3-methyl-2-oxobutanoate hydroxymethyltransferase (Vanderwaltozyma polyspora), 284 residues
Amino acid sequence: AKRKSILDLNKKYLACEPLSMCTAYDYITASWAQKSNCDMILIGDSLAMTSLGYKSTTDLPFDEFKYHVKSVCRAEGSSLVVADMPFGSYETSHEVAISNALQLLKLDSNVASLKIEVGMHTKDKYTINLVKEMCSRGIPIMGHIGLTPQRSHSLGGFRVQGNKSYKEIKELLETALVLQDAGCWALVLECIPQKVAGYITSKLNIPTIGIGAGTQTSGQVLVMSDMLGMLPGGVPKFVKQYSSIHRVASDSISKYIDEVESGKFPSNDTHTFKIKNEIWEEFI
Ligand code: KIV
């Protein structure tokens, strides 16, 4: 299938058709998303926790992330692939950040865009100017505002953003507008009250992709391990679980172990290779 381009997705946005995005972490999960014809696959740094068992996205080494980017890109299909800029890959200087961005884009020509978490424009001039620099060099950037997990310590934890005061809502809206001006082609809005996310969306002319941001954004993104129940334990309030892969998988493996122990697997008839009697008898 022909890969969707940023232009294709923009046409869909202009036609007011909702955009779909989900995360993927490796060849298998990317193949599922590609088979389902998701508009966009995000190689999110959430893979640090969902795939690699780190405690935080900030623990993710850049080299390990690159390995996952290559793996996701090997899955064939039409989804546009977006890769995160992980924590530590862009904060040192614009020069280092641009060099790391180019490394990600050069891993595979299927990486169509990068995504960067950005703080409020009043406090995070550095990242906003970086986005501007990158976009002016032709690097497609999806901004990410609201709850930005890489900054969870500064934000006081994993909490809804843009719900405390008039000033906070205004800052969030201004940040979205500044990022649009900086050249972002889309914005992720994470954990923002529905009304605020809807208002921001209505003031932009680029698509917004919401996660925990209600029904009024131009599209939705979910973390695959949350939506498919790939890990034990709870998921955030805004997640809808469409499956419980962790339970299905561990129940299936337990059944396999029982059958190995009881001698039910492998079955003599279906899972074994036979040899012609005359050859066997010649040997024996
Ligand atoms: O890393 C990630 O999975 C993300 C999504 C939550 C948008 O940034």
Observations:
- The two ends are 54 Å apart (CA to CA).
